[in-house]
TrEMBL record, chain A:
Family the UniProt entry places it in: Belongs to the prefoldin subunit beta family.
Protein name from the UniProt record: Prefoldin subunit 6
Keyword tags: Chaperone, Coiled coil
Taxonomic path: Eukaryota, Metazoa, Chordata, Craniata, Vertebrata
Role noted for this protein: Binds specifically to cytosolic chaperonin (c-CPN) and transfers target proteins to it. Binds to nascent polypeptide chain and promotes folding in an environment in which there are many competing pathways for nonnative proteins.
InterPro entries: PFD_beta-like (IPR002777), Prefoldin (IPR009053)
One Pfam family per UniProt: Prefoldin_2
Coiled coil: 80-114
Automatic annotation (TrEMBL), chain B:
Source organism superkingdom: Eukaryota
Similarity section: Belongs to the RNA polymerase II subunit 5-mediating protein family.
Protein name: Protein phosphatase 1 regulatory subunit 19
Skewed-composition ranges (Basic residues): 346-366, 503-515
Key word Membrane present: no
Location(s) in or outside the cell: Cell projection, Dendrite; Cytoplasm; Mitochondrion; Nucleus
Length: 126, 515
């Protein structure tokens, strides 16, 4: 009895740890996205500070590629859009993962109690 | 103890919380440091950008690899390429670069402000946790609250009550059936019981709250009277026990009485933890004999606790005394054959155990009705029979009694209602006592009660099992039962299982009589 519960408990703990890993992974990804968002926001604002006679380059690999300022602005705007979408996606993912981890935590606590009870019974029997 | 334990539990948690706060604050301070440096860099950059276009060209030492410099000239002083971020570059004038730097500095400043806010927030939290730790550590207020919580845990009483109710409800049906047959006898007993109830109420109140009301005073007076009576009764009981060998013809009456006595006996036990202990001890003694009687007795004790929760207790307890005095004779007489046999067995078993218990009982005498009961038993111990008879009566009653006892309780209530008219005091006291009992249970010595009651519950569960087994036998072989019972009783003389026959005797006796 106690052993079966212990096995179950172990598998549950492993699942829970997996979820925790995923959670932390998506959390760090989200943080990265957040940083990119702020950076791109700054780029967008600074591009607005420039006028049409300024030349804009994009660093692609080792070379600076000349870009049209308007095109650059559009690209940055698209980039911002994409980042926002990504952040939204990660937000949902995080929520889902947190819900799952909560569920697992509940299961774990109940299992733990069961296990302790079983252990206590076993001890009592002994 | 509880408070200390909580504190000890709290201390590490608080310490850890504080540690986490400090960690966050430290991290924020590191970031602030970083952003300050960035800001300073931007300041110097801005300074340079402002002065750069002042001249057309500058003579500078150009870094040539990591090790060498070479002289050179800086031209296009008003033309800079700015990294906007995300690998975007823009060629712009120094003036525009200055604007961009200004913009960047704004952002840096915003970040710094945010970090400062976070630091302040967490510093406040850390100080709050410090205060909490200090307050909880130094002052006892929090500790007191925690102790209350612990009490609540012990107070499961409420749950017990709930549990009791369910038990009592099912029993009521039986009670109704039994009541009709018992009513006549019970009515007579009721008066005595009411008196006893007053006594018990007084006792309960005294033990529990010490609230003095007219009812309480009356109850106390009654209790004192009851004690005197009990002492007298004890003397009588010894005599009575000797005379116990009366007819079995009164079996039905005996059963009823037994039920009543069983209830009374049980109620006192429930009221006091000590009484419970006695019951458990008695049960344990009985257990040594593997017969149904033990189970019945246990069941009764447990069942009674279930029913006992409030009202029944007080009523039943006092009646016991009266009944015991007046009724014991009859009880003992009725049940004499079985009881005597059982008693002889029980006495053998109980005497050893009961004697040890009796000491405790004597100590407890004053506190509870149950104690009185025990005292009786103890006193009887010299003669032994009265106690045993009482216990036996319980056990016998138990067989029918689990149902009948409750039914009797219902009867008691009915009686009360009828008697209440004449005895307004009793009703008031009963209601009061019921409340008092509940209240009393919760505050002071209750924990013990609760524990005992719980035990009683478990015991009740056990009891149920034995009953069904006995009942089927009865139903299966109703006609043969009497003979079987007799045989059993005869056998029981040496053994303890007379109770089952008694149960059978009630139903069967009724059937036989009818037939």
């Amino acid at each position: 009895m106690a052993e079966a519960i212990q096995k179950k408990l172990q598998s549950e703990v492993e699942k829970y740890q997996m979820i925790q890993k995923d959670l932390s992974k998506s959390m760090s990804a989200r943080q990265k996205l957040e940083a990119q968002l702020t950076e791109n926001n700054i780029v967008k604002e600074e591009l607005d500070l420039l006028d049409s006679q300024n030349i804009v380059y994009k660093l692609i690999g080792p070379v600076l590629v000349k870009q049209d300022p308007d095109e650059a602005k559009a690209t940055v705007a698209k980039r911002l859009e994409y980042i926002n979408g990504e952040i939204q996606r990660h937000e949902n993912l995080l929520k889902e993962l947190e819900r799952k981890s909560d569920q697992h935590r509940e299961v774990l606590t109940s299992l733990q109690q069961e296990y302790q009870r079983a252990q206590g019974l076993a001890v009592g029997k002994v | 103890m509880a408070g200390r334990a909580v504190e000890s539990d709290l201390a590490p948690d608080v310490g850890r919380l504080r540690e986490e706060h400090k960690k966050v604050v430290k991290g924020c301070e590191g970031q602030i440091e970083h952003w300050r440096k960035v800001e300073k860099d931007y300041d110097s950059l801005q300074e340079r950008l402002k002065t750069l276009p002042d001249q057309l060209s500058y003579d500078i030492m150009v870094p040539f690899g990591p090790l060498a410099f070479m002289p050179g000239k800086l031209v296009h002083t008003n033309e800079v390429t700015v990294l906007l971020g995300d690998n975007w570059f823009a060629k712009c004038s120094a003036k525009q670069a200055d604007n961009i730097v200004e913009h960047r500095k704004k952002h840096v400043k915003r970040t710094l402000d945010d970090l400062h806010k976070v630091v302040k927030n967490f510093e406040d939290r850390a100080s709050f946790t410090d205060d909490l730790d200090r307050v909880s550590g130094s002052k006892g207020d929090y500790v007191d609250i925690r102790e209350e919580v612990l009490n609540d845990e012990a107070l499961t009483k409420g749950k017990r009550r709930v549990a009791h109710k369910p038990h009592s409800k099912p029993k009521m049906d039986y009670v109704v059936a039994l009541e009709e047959a018992e009513e006549d006898e019970e009515e007579e007993e009721e008066e005595d019981k009411e008196e006893k109830v007053r006594v018990t109420e007084g006792e309960d109140r005294d033990g529990g709250k010490g609230v003095v009301t007219e009812e309480d005073l009356w109850a106390q007076l009654d209790a004192l009277e009851a004690q005197e009576e009990q002492l007298d009764e004890r003397d009588r009981m010894c005599d009575l026990t000797d005379t116990n060998g009366e007819d079995t013809s009164s079996s039905s009456e005996e059963e009823k009485e037994r039920e009543g006595t069983g209830q009374t006996n049980d109620s006192p036990k429930e009221d006091h933890a000590t009484s419970d202990i006695h019951g458990s001890q008695l049960n344990g003694v009985l257990h040594t004999h593997p017969e149904e009687e033990e189970g019945k007795e246990e069941e009764e004790g447990e069942e009674d606790p279930n029913a006992l929760p409030t009202i029944y207790f007080s009523h039943t307890v006092e009646p016991k005394k009266v009944r015991i005095n007046t009724g014991k004779n009859t009880m003992l007489k009725f049940s004499e054959r079985k009881e005597q046999k059982e008693q002889a067995k029980n006495k053998k078993k109980k005497n050893g155990k009961a004697n040890g218990h009796s000491r405790h009982d004597q100590h407890h005498k004053i506190t509870t009705p149950a104690d009185i009961y025990r005292l009786f038993v103890d006193v009887v111990n010299g003669e032994l029979i009265p106690r045993k008879s009482i216990l036996k009566s319980r056990s016998r009653e138990n067989s029918v009694c689990s149902d009948t006892s409750e039914s009797s309780a219902a009867d008691f209530e009915e009686r009360r209602s009828a008697l209440g008219r004449t005895l307004s005091h009793d009703d008031a006291t009963h209601s009061d006592t019921s409340d008092c009992v509940t209240e009393e249970d919760s505050p002071p010595g209750i924990p013990l009660h609760s524990g005992s009651r719980f035990e009683a519950f478990s015991g009740t569960v056990v009891e149920k099992d034995p009953l069904p087994s006995s009942i089927p036998h009865l139903t299966i072989a109703p006609p043969a039962l009497p003979t079987i019972l007799e045989r059993k009783s005869e056998e029981l003389c040496t053994e303890a299982p007379q109770e089952p026959p008694k149960r059978v005797s009630k139903f069967k006796a009724a059937r036989l009589q009818q037939k």
